[in-house]
Amino acid sequence: MADVTAVGTEGVPFRLDVERGKIREFARATGTTDLDGIDAQEHPVSQPTFLTTALHWQTGDANPWPAVKLDQKRGLHAEQEFTFFGEPPRAGSRLEGRSTITDIYTKQGRRGGEMTFAIVVTDYYDESGRLVAQAKMTGVETARPPKEDEA
Questions:
Q1: For site-directed labelling of 130, which of 7, 16, 51, 85 has its Cα 20 to 30 A away?
Q2: 75-134 pLDDT, tens per residue?
Q3: Class in CATH terms, 4-141
Q4: Which is nearest to 52 in space by CA: 27, 86, 73, 76?
Q5: Domain-by-domain residue ranges, the chain?
Q6: Contact call for residues 4 and 119 (beta carbons, < 8 A)
């Protein structure tokens, strides 16, 4: 069961360098067929979902998610949302990310049982301190673990 006292828990800031090669690798991994635009630009714009790669950099105290204490046997990634305050970051950008658990709430599930939702918001700032993007991830814990034949 989620720990509602985790709301407000903040991770320590972490750095995310937006690298040209990583933008290309991410594009290939997500099925982009037109890599010419990336290759032709010195500082290509990252794909809108590129910020998911921050999980590779957000380790230890930078990640507040463990404070939520969802049972991972019953956990699902429910939703991911990105908001940009301008274009997505370009190669060569250095961002500082800061994540906060912003909400934990419950809802009645359709199959019976209560579902617990938890939201973490990560703000990304450029080197001048300007907010350039925000990622909002919603995780859910189902009321019961899946049965063996449902897994």
A1: 7
A2: 888 999 999 999 999 999 999 999 999 999 999 877 768 899 999 999 999 999 999 999
A3: alpha beta
A4: 27
A5: 4-141
A6: no
